[in-house]
């Protein structure tokens, strides 16, 4: 795998998180009906997507923080992605044209509730992103290759810390494309209902 400068990678990931926070500020100014309306029967609303992301954030942010708290490894100048971590990241990450390579079914333990509280889910997601920014900053003193984080798939499947950050943020970017397309569908429907 191609090596990446560790600080450059962390800066890039921080910029990705800041971009997600900018999109969240737009969601905060969106009518709550847009956030809770499903684009079609059986499809997730924006609130559903946010709860799904929060389910992952509750696990990964806690797991990353615990590993960083125990960090005795010292920083490394370059990070080499692992084959599994790189595979997961590439599977999740949107293409440069903002398209998705494939559709994926969410695991049963990451399916949102029937009617999540949209504003609570949005605020929780924002809080997680601020926490994530702090963890990315702390990670500048850690070895992104040496520290390993267990995945939600199994405690036996672990990823390098650098890959965990890459995969986790790519997953969020993927679902923010879903949020964007959901809003494009539900916006006219909600506006039509509100005019009646």
TrEMBL record:
Residues 27-179 form the DinB-like domain. Pfam families: DinB_2. Signal peptide: none annotated. This is DinB family protein.
């Amino acid at each position: 795998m191609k090596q990446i400068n560790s600080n450059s990678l962390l800066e890039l990931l921080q910029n990705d998180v800041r971009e997600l926070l900018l999109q969240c500020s737009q969601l905060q100014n969106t009518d709550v009906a847009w956030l809770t309306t499903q684009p079609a029967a059986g499809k997730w609303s924006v609130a559903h997507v946010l709860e799904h992301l929060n389910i992952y954030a509750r696990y990964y942010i806690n797991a990353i923080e615990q590993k960083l708290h125990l960090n005795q490894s010292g920083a490394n100048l370059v990070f080499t992605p692992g084959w599994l971590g790189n595979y997961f990241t590439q599977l999740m990450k949107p293409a440069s044209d903002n398209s998705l390579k494939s559709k994926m079914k969410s695991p049963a333990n990451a399916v949102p509730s029937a009617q999540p509280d949209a504003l609570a889910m949005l605020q929780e997601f924002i809080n997680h992103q601020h926490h994530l920014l702090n963890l990315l900053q702390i990670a500048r003193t850690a070895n992104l290759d040496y520290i390993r984080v267990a995945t939600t798939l199994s405690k036996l499947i672990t990823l390098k810390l650098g890959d965990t950050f890459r995969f986790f943020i790519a997953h969020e970017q993927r679902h923010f494309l879903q949020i964007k397309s959901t809003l494009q569908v539900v916006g006219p429907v909600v506006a039509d209902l509100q005019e009646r």
